[in-house]
Amino acid sequence: MTQPTGPGPGEVPVCPRHPDRVSYVRCQRCGRPVCPECQRPAAVGVHCVDCVREAGQRAPQARTAFGAPLRQGAPVITYTLIGINVVVFLLQQALGMAWTYQWVLVPARAAGEPWTMLTSAFLHGGLLHIGFNMYALWILGQFLENALGRWRFLTAYLVSALGGSVVYLVMIDPASRAWGGWVYGASGAVFGLFGIILVVLRRLGRSASGIVAILVLNAVLGFVIPNIAWQAHLGGLLTGLVLGLAYAYAPKNLRTLASVLAPVVVVAVLVLLVTTKLASA
């Protein structure tokens, strides 16, 4: 055990962080002199900034019900995803359809351009299209990013986008006109977030009736309004439900494993599905 030493006889106490400043006030934890700039109020007396930092590092971090670090401030990943979608949409308007066509999902081209199953999720066909998807992402993302944590949320978004594309491709008949058509939009990813929030709200014991109503409405619109890829909505929703179950119901000591293993297994299944479909097309 060590004991803080003070200045020797005749020595003037100075702040260790600012040796040019004399201070007769001492930190209640370490006993060193502390100048006004380095003082932090405590229950009794003051603490120095070094002791406050050390105590903060040792303190257990507050976490959400799903094990994510409890953060304050803006949902960074949500805003970043919205920003990327908006920037890509502006590029679409500036560079035209020829540029957009390079990144859309065309089932007939998917074997040679597998990346389009993900890049197509960042493209949109108009202001209404991107407006609805980004509004939904903003609403759902603020809650889910804080509840699940940044990396689980980002993973869920991307894997749901992939799930939407894969299920769309798997459900399309190679003999139909849609096989040579193109599809794009963030709806698969957004419906994945809908699936996750359904599970999360149920896990928290909260009502999900509003989310269910939105899903039913969109399901009806998918069959009534032409040119809506309801298959991608379904794929994203199913993917989100599976990931949501893994995130929300994994035992506390297995949360990290489940957070990694669940997306890996889902992606592996999606790859198997699309590989089988393209091999038989």
TrEMBL record:
<dbReference type="GO" id="GO:0008233">
    <property type="term" value="F:peptidase activity"/>
</dbReference>
<keyword id="KW-0378">Hydrolase</keyword>
<keyword id="KW-0472">Membrane</keyword>
<dbReference type="InterPro" id="IPR035952">
    <property type="entry name" value="Rhomboid-like_sf"/>
</dbReference>
<feature type="transmembrane region" description="Helical">
    <location>
        <begin position="121"/>
        <end position="141"/>
    </location>
</feature>
<keyword id="KW-1133">Transmembrane helix</keyword>
<feature type="transmembrane region" description="Helical">
    <location>
        <begin position="208"/>
        <end position="226"/>
    </location>
</feature>
<feature type="domain" description="Peptidase S54 rhomboid">
    <location>
        <begin position="112"/>
        <end position="247"/>
    </location>
</feature>
<feature type="transmembrane region" description="Helical">
    <location>
        <begin position="153"/>
        <end position="170"/>
    </location>
</feature>
<keyword id="KW-0812">Transmembrane</keyword>
<feature type="transmembrane region" description="Helical">
    <location>
        <begin position="257"/>
        <end position="279"/>
    </location>
</feature>
<keyword id="KW-0645">Protease</keyword>
<feature type="transmembrane region" description="Helical">
    <location>
        <begin position="232"/>
        <end position="250"/>
    </location>
</feature>
<comment type="similarity">
    <text>Belongs to the peptidase S54 family.</text>
</comment>
<protein>
    <submittedName>
        <fullName>Rhomboid family intramembrane serine protease</fullName>
        <ecNumber>3.4.21.-</ecNumber>
    </submittedName>
</protein>
<dbReference type="GO" id="GO:0006508">
    <property type="term" value="P:proteolysis"/>
</dbReference>
<feature type="transmembrane region" description="Helical">
    <location>
        <begin position="76"/>
        <end position="101"/>
    </location>
</feature>
<dbReference type="InterPro" id="IPR050925">
    <property type="entry name" value="Rhomboid_protease_S54"/>
</dbReference>
<dbReference type="InterPro" id="IPR022764">
    <property type="entry name" value="Peptidase_S54_rhomboid_dom"/>
</dbReference>
<dbReference type="Pfam" id="PF01694">
    <property type="entry name" value="Rhomboid"/>
</dbReference>
<feature type="transmembrane region" description="Helical">
    <location>
        <begin position="182"/>
        <end position="201"/>
    </location>
</feature>
